[in-house]
Write a structure and sequence with these properties.
Layout: E1 7-11, H1 15-27, E2 31-35, H2 38-47, E3 52-56, H3 64-74, E4 80-84, E5 98-101, H4 105-116
Helix pairs in contact: 2-3
């Protein structure tokens, strides 16, 4: 399938995590744009049509929950998934559509993205 089924903005201040997540999602037929900060993500979302924002929670400057709040204020229908290395829900994370622990790995992430976008689970490219 050569067509991208959704555009996802991936946000993480750690380049390795960002690259890995981008590869996983691209394999699953998504178009992936990357941002290294909440500010960068807001600029991306303002500049083009995006279907989903997937953001790390713990980032310098702007936490994922703050980014989710700003995105929801400007784009109420834009789904946001927060991802974190901790298993506990961070304070304020209920603003996001979903929360995924990094510990769960790429399959869980893919399933969550498909679920939030109302796509079949085979959108994970498996």
């Amino acid at each position: 399938m050569g067509k991208h089924i959704a555009v996802i903005v991936c946000v993480d201040d750690e380049q390795n995590a960002l690259t890995l997540r981008k590869l996983v999602l691209q394999k699953a037929v998504y178009e992936v744009l990357t941002a290294n900060s909440g500010k960068e993500a807001l600029a991306l979302v303002a500049s083009r049509k995006v279907d989903l924002v997937l953001s790390d929670h713990l980032m310098p400057g702007m936490h994922g929950t703050e980014l989710a709040e700003q995105l929801k204020a400007e784009h109420p229908n834009l789904p946001v998934i927060l991802i974190s290395g901790v298993n506990d829900l961070p304070a304020g994370s209920t603003i996001a559509n979903a929360f995924v622990s990094k510990i769960e790995g790429p399959d869980a992430l893919c399933k969550e993205v498909a679920a939030v976008l109302n796509l079949p689970l085979d959108a994970c490219g498996n």
